[in-house]
Specification:
The protein is mainly alpha-helical and about 190 residues long. It has helices at about 1-80, 80-190. The longest helix has about 110 residues, at about 80-190.
């Protein structure tokens, strides 16, 4: 009898522990998903910011290129010298080199962003894989605990039934003996 009460308490504790583990697992998964979403939003914001900077730079470059060309054309018309034409050519080449350098930098930054996004995706996939593995491990542990609990319950039930049968048989035997004694006493009194 005492063993049954003790096991009942263990079952409730195991159930509460199981519920606590599941809630903790759900909270951990929610936190992980929130962190992954925050990281994704930050990367998108950085990408948008860099794209805006690139667009602004392209806009300024286009505007500056037009201003520069009109300025030099005006000087060339006024002075009409070969030296100014050479200077314009040199400045134009320098400007083109700067433009090419800045375009290369922008392309490199764009590639870096793509690589960062790819690394983020890989890290997120890896993280989710680990979370899934941990969930699978937890489920396996819970199933093992369930099987162990079911086995213990079955063992206790069998032991209880055997003990009940023994007590019932002993009671029947003792009752028969008492009835036989009562019958013998009554018989002696009658004699």
């Amino acid at each position: 009898m005492r063993v049954g009460k003790h096991m009942k308490g263990k079952g409730q504790v195991a159930k509460r522990a199981k519920d606590d583990d599941q809630e903790r697992l759900i909270r951990d998964r929610a936190r992980a998903m929130e962190l992954a979403e925050r990281n994704r939003i930050l990367i998108k914001q950085k990408l948008q910011h860099l794209q805006n900077l690139r667009k602004e730079e392209e806009k300024l470059t286009t505007m500056n290129r037009g201003k520069l060309m009109s300025f030099w054309l005006k000087i060339m018309r006024e002075v009409k010298t070969v030296q100014l034409k050479k200077d314009v050519e040199v400045l134009s080449q320098n400007h083109e080199r700067d433009m090419d350098r800045k375009d290369a930098i922008l392309q490199m930054l764009d590639r870096d962003l793509d690589e960062a996004e790819e690394q983020y995706q890989m890290a997120q996939r890896s993280y989710m894989l680990h979370v899934d593995q941990l969930l699978e491990l937890q489920e396996t542990r819970l199933e093992a605990l369930h099987r162990s609990f079911d086995t213990d319950v079955e063992t206790l039930s069998t032991e209880f039934k055997l003990e009940k049968e023994e007590i019932t048989a002993q009671h029947a035997t003792e009752r028969k003996e008492l009835l036989d004694i009562i019958a013998a006493v009554e018989k002696e009194e009658r004699d």
